[in-house]
Design goal:
The complex is a heterodimer of chains A (about 270) and B (about 325).
Chain A (H helix, E strand, L loop, with lengths): L3 E10 L2 E11 L3 E7 L5 H8 L7 E6 L2 E2 L5 H7 E4 L11 H6 L3 H4 L7 H13 L15 H14 L4 E5 L7 H18 L2 E5 L3 H7 L2 E6 L2 E6 L1 H4 L2 H8 L3 E5 L6 E5 L10
Helix pairs in contact in A: 5-6, 6-7
Chain B lengths: L1 H23 L10 H10 L5 H35 L11 H15 L4 E2 L2 E2 H21 L7 H25 L4 H9 L7 H19 L2 H7 L3 H6 L4 H23 L5 H13 L3 H25 L8 H19 L5
Antiparallel strand pairs in B: 1-2
The chains are: A alpha/beta (about 270), B mainly alpha (about 325).
């Protein structure tokens, strides 16, 4: 099974530990959403999982294989990463950008094969980018650009997807559009998806599992209804909230009680 | 894709035409229709007429050298722009030019005169100086096994400024040699012949081949270093390969003709406009444009003043500057 098993992982920088003793398992076909206040260590966590930052202690496994035992080439075939903000410095076309998702398989020198083009085409269709394929990536809107990065990750054919705030900077419609896409890809292809979000309500809607970070560690992990409680959220974010029920889906709906009115909170 | 390939083919044709036309310019002028006759004369190897001698001994090697140099500069510029993800980078961005100038200034001042592999001591000094400067910058910029791009740029700027000051000092102190150094700094192909061509050709060919292996890596770098790493780009190996390729090309160009500005800056821009940003297409286009542009500039350099020659570096800057501004003004909304 392609689950991501994290055991007692501590991450951060030699001079500063950011997260301690995180134990967490992300299952295939599920969206595991990472929540936490600014500075709680979400990005550091992602950088460690994507191999850009060596773990300070502990370890994690991809499908029962120790992460440290992967070579760079093996690793990038398994793991696709979307950083919080990704630059697009040259006006490559959308198709050229998605093609580069094949680099982990094809290397840097040889031309793409028929098979590569088939995989790329599938990724482009899946993310509805057919119309935009000749468009320079520098001319895309934020939402379209996120879709291109997702398409590139699909072309990469990785079984693990790490997405650091995939909705950052998007408006309401695009936030939902992008998360829907991630969700359906995760479910269809049985991908092991770990993503971080800032919006608690989006997390409640789209997350299969929620991992809540705070106090330099993992405070709670479980389905949204178990983790998104008034106490835990106040603990993690330092602001009182009231939990309602989503009128349509029945998922938790979080209403923050803004600072000034704290006193009025029953 | 078809359109892009046809643009490349067009550039090749254009370059061939430009080479043929350039053969007819100059002190011994031959008409285009006269070229085949001269060519036959050269191939027959019998005693050459004066014009055939000039064409064969002087003009042809010079034209070929100009094309190679222009191509090398433009490809090096494209490589550096890709590496630094910055459209302002040029072949001299991390110190090659001032390193070369410093090398040449030292040779001129100390009066060392030797030649090696058909290169004069000035060319050699330029070549070695350019490579050493880049090596210094690379070593200075490194810190605990990483070499951040910003450090490379900063170290490049700092070393360039320092070396330029040294060159100025050497020029002021040895004012009688001022013109030699200054003339070399302007860049010129005056008096180049087959020997110079054979000396730099292997270097440029090696540099171009190395650069050809780096195209997809450069594409991936457009997403930033972090993403490039998550797509499997081994940073250190890539960085060393690219710096070696680009500085080899730059140093070879410098040893051929001194410091010629602007070609390496604007050709990648024009190429990106014509064929898009994918390096596998953009770099060849840039190289062809570099050859073409420098050839036109050199044709002008050796003819506009009649008997005497202009340094070609002045012309590339005079032609290139306004053209670059025109490009900037007409560029579409995004960069």
């Amino acid at each position: 099974m392609s689950s991501l098993r994290i055991e007692n992982l501590s991450c951060g920088y030699p001079s500063r530990t950011v997260l301690k003793h995180v134990t967490l398992t992300a299952e295939p076909g599920k969206m595991t959403v990472l929540l936490g206040a600014n500075g709680a260590g979400k990005t550091t966590f992602f950088r460690t999982l994507s191999g850009q930052l060596p773990p300070l202690a502990g370890s994690f496994r991809l499908a029962d294989r120790e992460f440290g035992s992967y070579s760079l080439q093996d690793r990038v075939r398994e793991l696709a990463v979307m950083p919080q903000s990704e630059s697009r410095d040259w006006p490559l076309t959308v198709e050229e950008a998605v093609n580069l998702g094949r680099a982990p398989h094809r290397g840097w020198l040889f031309p793409l094969t028929e098979e590569d083009h088939r995989v790329v085409e599938e990724a482009i269709v899946r993310t509805c980018l057919e119309e935009l394929r000749e468009r320079p990536i520098t001319e895309l809107s934020g939402g379209e650009w996120r879709r291109v990065i997702l398409a590139r990750a699909l072309a990469q054919e990785a079984r693990y997807l790490l997405l650091d705030e995939p909705t950052a900077g998007l408006d309401l419609k695009y936030q939902h559009e992008v998360l829907h896409l991630i969700q359906s890809i995760t479910h269809d292809r049985k991908l092991t998806t770990v993503l971080s979000l800032h919006d608690l309500n989006l997390a409640a809607l789209f997350g299969d599992e929620i991992a809540l970070l705070g106090d330099e560690s993992l405070i709670a992990v479980g389905p949204p209804a178990d983790v998104l409680t008034e106490d835990l959220i106040q603990h993690a974010f330092g602001i009182p909230v009231s939990i309602l029920k989503h009128p349509v889906y029945g998922t938790p709906l979080i209403a923050p009680l803004s600072g000034q009115h704290t006193g009025d909170h029953p | 894709m078809k359109r892009r390939l046809s643009i490349i083919v067009m550039l090749v044709v254009l370059l061939l035409v430009a080479v043929a036309v350039s053969m007819t310019f100059g002190s011994a002028s031959v008409s285009l229709s006269g070229l085949p006759r001269v060519w036959r004369e050269i191939l027959d190897g019998e005693s050459l007429s004066t014009e055939a001698t000039i064409l064969w001994r002087l003009r042809l090697p010079r034209i070929l050298l100009v094309c190679l140099t222009g191509g090398a500069l433009a490809v090096a510029g494209a490589g550096y722009q890709g590496l630094f993800r910055n459209p302002l980078a040029d072949p001299f961005v991390i110190g090659s030019a001032s390193g070369a100038a410093f090398g040449v200034a030292i040779v001129v001042v100390t009066g060392l005169q030797t030649s090696l592999f058909g290169l004069s001591s000035l060319s050699l000094a330029g070549f070695v100086g350019a490579l050493l400067a880049v090596l210094c910058v690379f070593i200075i910029a490194g810190r605990n096994r990483e070499t951040p791009m910003v450090s490379l740029l900063l170290a490049g700027v700092a070393l360039s400024t320092f070396l330029s000051a040294c060159v100025s000092l050497l020029m002021i102190v040895n004012s009688e040699e001022l013109y030699v150094i200054f003339g070399w700094l302007m860049g010129s192909f005056s008096g180049r012949s087959w020997g110079d061509l054979w000396a730099v050709t292997p270097l440029i060919v090696i540099g171009l081949l190395m650069m050809a292996t780096l195209c997809r890596s450069l594409d991936v770098l457009a997403f930033g270093e972090e993403t490039a790493a998550t797509l499997g780009l081994g940073r250190k190996k890539f960085l060393i390969l690219l710096l070696s390729a680009a500085s080899l090309l730059t140093a070879a160009a410098v040893s051929a003709a001194g410091i010629i500005g602007f070609v390496g800056l604007i050709c990648p821009h024009i190429a990106r406009r014509l064929v898009g940003a994918r390096h596998a297409v953009m770099i060849p286009a840039s190289g062809l444009l570099g050859a073409l542009l420098l050839l036109v500039a050199d044709d002008l350099a050796r003819t506009v003043l009649g008997a005497s020659e202009l340094p070609v570096g002045i012309l590339t800057a005079m032609l290139g500057g306004p053209f670059f501004l025109f490009l900037l003004k007409t560029e579409r909304g995004t960069r």
